[in-house]
Design brief:
Oligomer: single chain
Largest sheet: 6 strands, parallel
Distance between the termini: 39 Å
Number of domains: 2
Helix content: 40-55%
Strand order of the largest sheet: 1-4-7-10-13-16
Number of strands: 16
Structural class: alpha/beta
Length: about 300
């Protein structure tokens, strides 16, 4: 997606924006681009209602207000904690990015760039509760079992691809696990705490746009660390199982597959599956740090 590059360019290269602060510290000033009007600069507003009937040639960014697009926006429309309406006949030549707030998009509209809408659901606490409840019970319904199997196999596919691309790195990280199990667990825990601090910090800065690209970078880094860590842990676990079965020669793929099979089976044991996933991911993140993504040699 080009949203990240767009945000970076907005932050670094904004010309003089169309900015309306509160008047005398109170109230707000609404912004209206009339039907035959063409506005040449960026429109940035905090808490105001921005309505585009005519043409805004550059970007429209509103924090804590609302955006109504009837006409044309030549670049991006970004709403942070705002109500965004893209109405019939509207055209957005760039991206539509809505974080928090509400989004209404009519059918007969044109968005040439990417569209991203993120809003934490009202039932988010219930979702968390059901997630923990599911960790202590075996999935009994067929669709729950199917979804769990699909999720596990999706992870396995990613792990296989990662192992295929970086076989030497995975092997080096796996070899370091034998003497660093508890150390990797501790480092993984501390690293995750640090990442969470960064997520909270950049999440807060995202309200002012500047934190969004850094938040995305941290999330991508965390995902890659978990993916590499799981690949290394599966390899390490599979290698030890194969060695216990008197198999001295085996490929990286066989080792990863053997480790995953154990992980797959144990994932269906209530409560233990939760502890296992925590152990695997913390050790995985820890071994990523210790092995420097498998670049450190024994």
């Amino acid at each position: 997606m080009k949203i990240v590059s767009v945000i970076l360019s907005l932050l670094l290269f904004f010309p003089k924006p169309f900015f309306f602060p509160s008047e005398n510290g109170e109230g707000k000033r609404d912004i209206i681009i009339e039907k035959d009007e063409v506005y040449e600069k960026d429109i940035i507003s905090f808490g105001s209602e921005v309505t585009i009937h005519g043409t805004a040639k550059k970007s429209v960014i509103v924090i804590g207000g609302s955006i109504n697009v009837y006409g044309t926006v030549g670049n991006d429309v970004i709403g942070i904690g705002s109500k965004v309406s893209v109405l019939k006949g509207a055209k957005i030549s760039g991206d539509l990015l809505v974080i928090g707030g509400r989004l209404r998009k009519d059918r007969e509209t044109c968005i040439e760039g990417d569209m991203f809408y993120f809003k934490p659901g009202r039932n988010f606490p219930a979702f968390i509760k059901s997630t923990f409840k599911g960790a202590f019970s075996f999935p009994s319904r067929p669709h729950e079992i199917l979804l769990k199997i699909v999720a596990l196999l999706s992870w396995f596919l990613l792990v296989l691809i990662f192992n295929f691309i970086f076989p030497k790195n995975v092997l080096e990280a796996s070899l370091l696990m034998d003497k660093n199990i508890w150390k990797s667990l501790l480092i993984g825990f501390l690293s995750l705490l640090i990442v969470l601090v960064f997520l909270v910090f950049f999440g807060f800065l995202s309200l002012f746009l500047i934190g969004i690209p850094f938040l995305i970078i941290v999330l991508i880094g965390l995902f890659l660390a978990v993916l590499f860590g799981r690949t290394a842990i599966f390899h390490w676990l599979g290698s030890n199982i194969l060695k216990a079965l008197k198999r001295d020669e085996f490929s990286n793929t066989i080792a990863v597959l053997s480790g995953f099979i154990v992980f797959f089976i144990l994932s269906f044991i209530p409560f233990f599956s939760l502890l296992m996933r925590i152990f695997v991911d913390l050790c995985g993140i820890g071994i990523v740090v210790i092995s420097k993504f498998g670049t450190r040699r024994i």
